[in-house]
Amino acid sequence: MSLKPSKKSDQTKNWMQPRRDRRKMIQPEYHLIVTEGTETEPTYFMAMGDIINKNYPDRINVKVEGKGNNTLNLYSKAKNDVKNSANVYRHVWIVYDTDDFPAAHIDETARLCEEDSDSDTTYHAIWSNQCVELWFLLHFSYMQSDIHRKEYWSKLTDALKSIGEGDYHKNRTDMYRILSPYMDTAIANAQKLEENNVGKAPSKSAPGTMIHNLIIKLKPYLNPEL
Questions:
Q1: Where does 67-194 show beta strands of DSSP type E?
Q2: Residue 8 belongs to a domain
C-alpha cells in the first residue's frame, strides 16, 4: 500500500472525501462457551448468556454450546466452530471437568489454549478438578480437601437444603438462579484455591477450578441496571 499523500487534484473527488453520512458500526464482543456437558453446564451458562444478550446486545454476545466431548476433543470442536463462524470470537472458553480422563489430555488442552491464542482470539482452559460441582459448592464454603466428585453431590444437597432449595442432582436447570446471590463468595474461594495451586498442572490441582475467570469476565454484564 502506498504511503504517498493524495494529490490535491484527487482530494476534491467524492471517493476521497470522508463519509459523513454513515455511522460507524461497532461490533459486539463475541464470546463462545463450549462445555463438556450437554445439560448441567450449558444450562448454567445459558442463564447468564440470556441476561447478557438481552441487556447488552450492542456490547457483548455470548453463545453457549454443549458438545458432549471431553478435553482434546472438546478443544478441537471449539476450534472448528471458530473457524466456521461468520463472527470473530474474541474469547473462547473451553469448559471441562478432569474426572478420570488421562492427565496428559487434561494438561495438553490447557497448553493448546495458551499456545493458539492470538491478538484476535483468546482461548481459555476453564477446567474443574474434579468437576463443575466444586464450583457450585464454593458458593457456600471454602473447600481444599481432594475428595471424589460424587462426594460433592451430598455436600451440595446439604447446602441447598440449608437455603430451602431441596436436593442436588445432575442436570438441575435452576442452579444459576439459586447460586447467583453467592457469586462473590464463590469467586473468592476459587481464587484461594488458584493461589494454592500455583505452579501445578491442571491434572495435579485438586481441588481446583478456573470457572471464576469466566465469571469475572462476564460479571459486569449480569446486572441489568448497569
A1: 89-97, 122-129
A2: no
